[in-house]
From TrEMBL:
Family of the protein in this entry: Belongs to the metallo-dependent hydrolases superfamily. ATZ/TRZ family.
A Pfam family reported for this protein in Swiss-Prot or TrEMBL: Amidohydro_1
Record's protein name: Amidohydrolase
UniProt KW keywords: Hydrolase
Domain of life, source organism: Bacteria
Amidohydrolase-related domain segment(s): 69-424
InterPro entries cross-referenced by the UniProt entry: Amidohydro-rel, Metal-dep_hydrolase_composite, Metal_Hydrolase, MTA/SAH_deaminase
Length: 464
């Protein structure tokens, strides 16, 4: 049991009797476990018969009938796309979908609508077991979104839409870069990463939208202040083609030459890279966040072109994200990661359930610089706990809880969630959000956004 000495431990909450999938250093799975929280931290975890006798808690919760896991870490999520859920046509090519649909629809949101979208995304994540997220760096109404998120009780790192490359002939490149750096500095000052749940990071849009000076400035800021950067890269062939045409080298070689690769950086998607770029990522300690559901829906060719098994073999830290607004339940992404590569390569040894669950937890924590703090049930870690109800049909019978979490369960089975010791979901309901009011407001706002856009709802079947 992870406790020091035999003195009584004072705790705020004791959860006793759950099967605990700890994701600790030894990956213990405790059949009849107990976990105590105090001051937002885990203060005891181990077999119930040991922990119960040494913890004095103000609140004791019966965990029998539940599997307990750490809170999941969503390594890439667009908080403010949620009102567009399943509005975009499926068949759009990547560039057309981004430039003619996604970006105009983003800009069509009012600040209130962006805040509603972010709260809806946070609600969806919490109710499906995600307690920590890394936003995609595409928030327009930054102040309003931050204010909307803070009362929810989820942990996240956010950034405003940050791109500075001058694509129009009359753009002032220096002014665009200076403006982007100033915006990053202002956001970091307003929401410093000082222990608060919602904090700002110097996140970049990525692709080919950021110049070398902005990449280097953001990287310097992150390194000096112990922060992290994330950016989109190479979901489709267009990024590599642009860099080859304009810089004479592939994108990861360009980033390496700038000196911005490293363990402070997470690159998202990374489907259309070659073996030399895999080596650069591995050597530098750069993290990679894969979004398998987005890849499937967007036709990115991850399983035919992606080198994710090669990245894993070279020690690249792979985390998972949900990407856009269609789904923010992260658990199915682990199932896809565990299954798609077995099929694509004809190798059932690729990405076993244990590796997929690590991507949901400890790998995501590492990609966010929170290793040992989140994604694990261990003494001293943040008290983020998820209880999955094993009395639901999809949980019966239960043999191997790790395989069950990856292959059979999903976020619908989440009963309770704690973030830093605060219970933010109880009996499947948010304790911090008026769900009925939010859902009604989000539906109304979504209809207003698409109506103003003038873009059509394209359905193959008649809607009458």
């Amino acid at each position: 049991m992870e406790m020091s000495g035999m003195e009584m431990i004072e705790a705020d909450t004791l959860v006793a009797g759950a099967m605990l999938v700890t994701m600790d250093a030894t990956r213990r799975v405790i059949r009849d476990g107990a976990l105590a929280m105090a001051g937002g931290r885990i203060v005891a975890v181990g077999p119930r018969d040991q922990v119960e006798g040494q913890v004095r808690a103000r609140e004791v919760i019966d965990g029998r009938g539940f599997v307990g896991t750490p809170g999941f870490v969503n390594g890439h999520v667009h908080l403010t796309e949620t009102l567009l859920r399943n509005f975009l046509p499926e068949h759009l090519p990547f560039d057309e979908g981004l430039n003619q649909w996604v970006i105009p629809l983003y800009h069509g949101h009012t600040p209130r609508e962006q805040a509603l979208a972010a709260r809806l995304a946070a609600l969806t994540m919490l109710k499906s077991g995600t307690t920590t997220f890394l936003e995609a760096g595409t928030i327009l109404a930054f102040d309003e979104v931050a204010a909307a998120l803070e009362p929810v009780g989820i942990r996240g790192r956010i950034g405003r839409w940050c791109m500075d490359r001058a694509f129009a002939p009359d753009d002032d490149q220096t002014a665009l870069t200076d403006k982007a750096i100033a915006a990053i500095e202002a956001d970091l000052a307003a929401l410093p990463d000082d222990g608060r749940l919602i904090a700002a990071w110097p996140l970049l849009v990525g692709h080919m939208t950021n110049t070398a000076p902005l990449w280097q400035a953001a990287s310097a800021i992150a390194r000096e202040r112990g922060l992290h950067i994330a950016a989109h890269m190479a979901p489709a062939p267009g990024d590599a083609e642009w860099y080859l045409a304009h810089e004479g080298k592939r994108p990861l070689h360009w980033l390496a030459d700038l000196g911005v690769l490293g363990d402070h950086l997470a690159l998202v998607h990374m489907v259309h890279i070659d073996e030399s770029e895999v080596a650069l990522v591995a050597q530098s300690g750069t993290h990679v966040v894969h979004c398998p559901e987005a890849s499937l829906k967007g036709g990115y060719q991850a399983t035919t072109r992606g080198l994710f098994p090669e990245m894993a073999a070279q020690g690249v830290n792979l985390a998972l994200g949900t990407d856009g607004g269609d789904r923010h339940d992260l658990m199915p992404s682990a199932r896809l990661m565990a299954g798609l590569w077995k099929d694509a390569r004809g190798d059932t040894a690729l990405f076993p359930a244990e590796a997929a669950l690590e991507m949901l937890t400890v790998n995501g924590a590492r990609a966010m610089g929170l290793e040992g703090q989140v994604g694990t049930l261990a003494v001293g870690a943040r008290a983020d706990l998820v209880l999955h109800d094993t009395r639901r049909p999809e949980w019966v019978p239960l043999h191997n809880p790790v395989q069950h979490l990856v292959w059979t369960a999903d976020g619908r089975g989440v009963d309770s969630v704690w973030v830093e010791g605060r219970r933010v979901v109880a009996a499947g309901r948010s304790t911090t959000i008026d769900e009925e009011a939010l859902l009604a407001q989000a539906q109304e706002a979504a209809q207003a956004v698409v109506a103003r856009s003038g873009l059509p709802l394209r359905m193959n079947w008649p809607l009458i």
